[in-house]
Design a protein that fits this description.
With 320 residues, this protein is α+β, with helices and mostly antiparallel strands. The protein has helices spanning 13-27, 68-73, 138-141, 154-168, 175-197, 206-220, 229-235, 240-248, 254-270, 280-286, 292-303, 307-313; strands spanning 2-7, 31-34, 42-49, 52-59, 62-66, 78-86, 89-93, 96-100, 105-109, 114-118, 122-130, 147-149.
Length: 320
């Protein structure tokens, strides 16, 4: 885990600006205000697991809030899963209030305003899921944000248990392993959303079977540079417009899904370690990217490092 900022005692406003900036780099722009005057203790650290970011915050009592102004000037949005390991906290978002204590999990969306109140010293481990990588419809996500999840039963208990173990000591693993762990987190969260919104109990929809067939078709033809929404639609004898309508509920476009799956396969191959059998460009071409420069740009956007740096991490090195 890479240390972002720490301070044992920061009584002056200039020093506080330093950790506010570190906080913003870790979790995005927001207002952070200590609840008490005088010395303030805060430690912010961050690590990367596949395409996920894991931030640990240990601090004294404070209030934090993200407004529409912060969101307008922020970068990419995230779904935040906060595991409370010490102290109490209150989360407000979408008109809901979640009171959490040690061992609880809170969910919020950084693309919409929210506030956090920590009335006492606390430790929180926050797992940030890129919003574009979460295949959950926006309206369904709104039903779980601003809520607390306990370790009682069901998908919530599984997700909480997995995140608690994962964030206690972010594993140093090969990039490909990190990507798989990241995918597991996203899948568990999507299952939780389905359960909370009632989708898990709904009868099978024929459209869901078609979506699954499309996903399988994409996986089989990833290596073909010509793979596109048009070729996918033609292979299933449907219009491109209907294909896009099918994937509206998936929270991702077909074009974005193709790109994401190609990136995942490239990341897995580049992260295997050992003597490189293929150049980075050759791996990109192998998985359907027609332009090496474009591949490098989108890879860095998703994984935070260049393909060459990803490969150089080797087995046992953290991703990022």
């Amino acid at each position: 885990m890479n240390l972002v900022a720490t301070t044992a005692s920061v009584p002056d406003e200039e020093g506080r600006d330093d950790w506010r900036e570190a906080w913003a780099r870790a979790l995005g722009p927001m207002t952070v205000t200590p609840r008490a005057e005088g010395p303030f203790v805060c430690r912010v650290s961050t690590a990367r697991l596949g395409w996920l970011r894991v931030c640990t915050i240990e601090a004294g009592p404070l209030r934090a809030g993200r407004t529409s102004r912060h969101i307008a000037h922020g970068a990419e949005g995230y779904v935040a899963l906060g595991v409370q390991t010490a102290g109490r906290a209150t989360l407000l978002q979408d008109g809901r209030r979640a009171d959490v204590g040690p061992g609880d999990l809170m969910v919020y969306d950084t693309t919409r305003p929210y506030s956090l109140d920590h009335p006492e010293p606390f430790t929180t481990r926050v797992v940030l899921l890129p919003r574009r990588a979460v295949g959950v419809p926006r309206e369904h996500l709104r039903e779980v944000t601003g809520t607390a999840i306990t370790g009682s039963e069901g998908p919530g208990a599984l997700l909480l248990s997995f995140l608690t173990a994962l964030t206690a000591s972010v594993p140093a693993c090969a990039p490909a392993v990190g990507a798989r762990l990241a995918t597991s987190v996203v899948d568990l969260f999507a299952t939780l959303v389905d359960e909370r919104t009632g989708r898990a109990e709904q009868p099978a929809d024929p459209r869901e079977h078609l979506v699954q067939r499309v996903r399988e078709h994409i996986d089989r033809h990833l290596r073909e540079p010509a793979l596109s929404p048009h070729t996918v639609a033609a292979a299933h004898h449907i219009s491109v417009r209907y294909l896009h309508r099918l994937f509206e509920a998936e929270g991702i476009t077909v074009g974005r899904l193709i790109q994401r799956r190609r990136l995942e396969e490239c990341a897995r191959e580049l992260g295997r370690g050992g003597p490189p059998a293929l150049t980075v460009s050759a791996v990109a071409y192998r998985w359907g990217f027609a332009n090496a420069a474009h591949f490098s740009r989108v890879f860095r956007t998703v994984y935070g490092v260049s393909p060459r740096e990803w490969r150089g991490a080797g087995v046992g090195a953290p991703a990022g």
